[in-house]
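2.7 Reproducibility. Because tokenized structures are sensitive to small changes in the input, we list the exact sequence used for DNA-binding transcriptional LysR family regulator, including any N-terminal residues retained from the expression construct. No trimming or masking was applied before prediction.
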Amino acid sequence: MDLHLLRVLVELHRHGTMRAVAKATGYGTSTVSVQLATLEKQVGTPLLERVGRTVRFTPAGRRLVEHAEGILSAVEAARADIGPCGEPSGLLRIAGSASIMSTDLIPVATALRASHPALRLEMQEREPGEVAELLDADEVDLGFVYDYSLVPRFTPNGTTMRLICTVPILLAVPKGKFGPVETLDDVRELLAGEPWIGNSRGADDTELVEFLCGMAGFAPTVAHGADSLNLALDFVAADLGVALVPAFVGPCDGVELRELPTGLFERRMFAVTRPGRHAWPAVRLVTAAVEARVQ
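Resulting structure tokens (single pass, no recycling of outputs):
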């Protein structure tokens, strides 16, 4: 079987329509249709069936997609394995959240610019869901995403994931305003009437707040949204609300960071690639550098 035809089949499974496959691959819709018909002839059994103006996979088609994903992943890994002893070089496209960029990726990129001048990094700030979309569209090679242990968001969905680290979640409150927050009863008695700060670009931070407050027996009021940890801390310092933040945030004037009365709340960071690309020398280098930095 032609690997190129298998790749077209996998792209159809990922994108759902021939028009979307054509857009992703650069081929015309009619070319995509011919390629899929050729693959059906090669395997000797129908892979697709028409439903109105769309197509859906036959059972044989779904099974071949599973095999094709494994085959293409193995091919990617084999290509990487042929020349991994060479110096990581060329272009590596990376996407990650603003906090991961500032805290980890920019320092790593600065160091690698000196130690590996043949490697060129292109980085863009994206939320986890956007990283998944860019990986699926093959617009980035490596993504760094986060979610929360009690609000899991990111699933493999055809990608290769590596857990980089877990970080405790802390409670950020205005300095000097509250006494100890040692139990869930303290959370309810001290914070039930306070406004909270969530994330303006995603619901996971708000859901984490709701989870904590629900454990304490009340429903929170999420009054503000910020897509920046520094901005969230500015809200807290101005006594405009309280927030949940990862423990790696630095000191901030006017803010006290308190441990939560339960150890269940953690932020998890993952490195994510398309299948097979985790073995690319440049991917391995950057992933290892980020992992070493956060340990």
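The CA atoms of residues 13 and 65 lie 7 Å apart.
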